[in-house]
Amino acid sequence: MYSEKVIEHFTNPRNVGEIDNADGIGQAGNPICGDIMKIYLKIENDVIIDVKFKTFGCGAAIATSSMATELIKGKNIKQALELSNKAVVEALDGLPTVKLHCSVLAEEAVKSAILDYYTKIGKDTKQLKELCNIDCKTCCCKAL
Questions:
Q1: What is the pLDDT of residues 104-130, one digit of tens each?
Q2: Residues 6+ apart with CB under 8 A from 139
Q3: Does a structural domain hold residue 139?
Q4: Does residue 47 belong to any structural domain of this protein?
Q5: CATH number of the domain bearing residue 47
Q6: Beta strands in 45-94 (DSSP E)
Q7: Residue 73: inside a domain, yes or no?
Q8: CA–CA distance, 87 with 32 (Å, rounded to integer)
Q9: How many domains does one find in the chain?
Q10: Residues with catalytic annotation?
């Protein structure tokens, strides 16, 4: 059973779309279920001023993408890196156990976009590893 917030973010997702000339673009996907999330970031002075997403997947995948964008918009990079799948789930008032992987994908897509941004500006990505809270062995951002 989905919470009202999950249903709301699925039926009325926030921040859908692409950002032309995005400062960072990240993608995460699960080949087993077929969910694919792509996150676009616009960053000024280390602050995420705009974020958009495109997700191919189930209602939970769309809802977690929508919520993740809401949670990082207006935040600085360090704060965005602190985003956890648990925070996404809590903000949505829970997810069914079989859909928790969607929140992990949302977190990984955000961090993948930040990695892309750091790479584009020539910033040392080793700093990201210190700030990131994902297990590197399972993350899509294997470069960290």
A1: 999 999 999 999 999 999 988 776 666
A2: 108, 111, 132
A3: no
A4: yes
A5: 3.90.1010.10
A6: 47-56
A7: yes
A8: 24
A9: 1
A10: 33, 102
